[in-house]
Design goal:
single chain; 219 residues; alpha+beta; Ubiquitin-like (UB roll); DNA polymerase, domain 1; 2 domains; 8 helices
């Protein structure tokens, strides 16, 4: 029997396939013979840094940070406070929620340099010694988590949200709210779901999260 290559010069074999791919990669990486290869682009300029003092969980921390460092990366990478999670890194999931001067924010959407001198509370700073924060205790009592990845952000967000509600801040679904807000009467399930809508639980533990927050609101 004749060699397949002799019968059909265009027949594709494993060897010719490998050789062809290698030639294509070589041409892409090093240029065709006789053609100059483009010089690599110059490197990025040295980053600009600045001193930043963050008061985190009651302790002043002095850092020298790239001005582009987010608050989330400052907490996780520079201070080792990994309880605050990096989820989407686009401000859409709420896993990175912390409290800055008592108000909840997404740490991935703000630069650390913008909070020089601010008081920041992370999930690690909510408890007082061995005594859990009421919201933490309620999440445990109501099994308000499954994988737990979103839980620190859920808890920090709930703490900030309860403060907002107590101060009389209405939400999109609120009826006429008098000030001060009566938490037990006003924080029904639709209110809690609306106010916590920036925090996503991919395990869908929402019924237990809502129950935990209602429980904590009653304390």
């Amino acid at each position: 029997m004749n060699d397949p290559q002799q019968r059909n010069p265009l027949a594709l074999t494993r060897r010719t396939m490998v050789e062809g791919c290698a030639a294509a990669v070589g041409a892409a990486g090093f240029g065709w013979p006789g053609h100059a290869v483009a010089a690599p682009a110059p490197g990025d300029p040295a980053p600009q840094t600045m001193p930043v003092r963050l008061t985190v969980n009651g302790q002043a921390r002095d850092l020298e940070l790239d001005t582009r460092t987010t608050l989330l990366d400052a907490l996780r990478e520079h201070l080792g406070l990994t309880g605050t999670k990096k989820g989407c890194d686009h401000g859409q999931c709420g896993a990175c929620t912390v409290l800055v001067e008592g108000r909840r924010i997404n740490a991935c959407l703000t630069l650390a340099a913008m909070h020089d001198g601010d008081a920041i509370t992370t999930i690690e700073g909510l408890a007082e010694g061995d005594a859990l924060h009421p919201v933490q205790a309620a999440f445990i009592a109501h099994d308000g988590f499954q994988c737990g990845y979103c839980t620190p952000g859920q808890i920090c967000s709930a703490v900030g949200m309860l403060r907002e509600a107590k101060a009389g801040w209405p939400s999109h679904v609120s009826a006429q709210i008098a000030e001060p807000l009566v938490l037990e009467a006003a924080l029904a399930e639709p209110e809690i779901r609306e106010r916590m809508s920036g925090n996503i639980c991919r395990c869908s533990a929402y019924p237990n999260i809502v129950a935990a927050i209602r429980d904590a609101a009653d304390i």
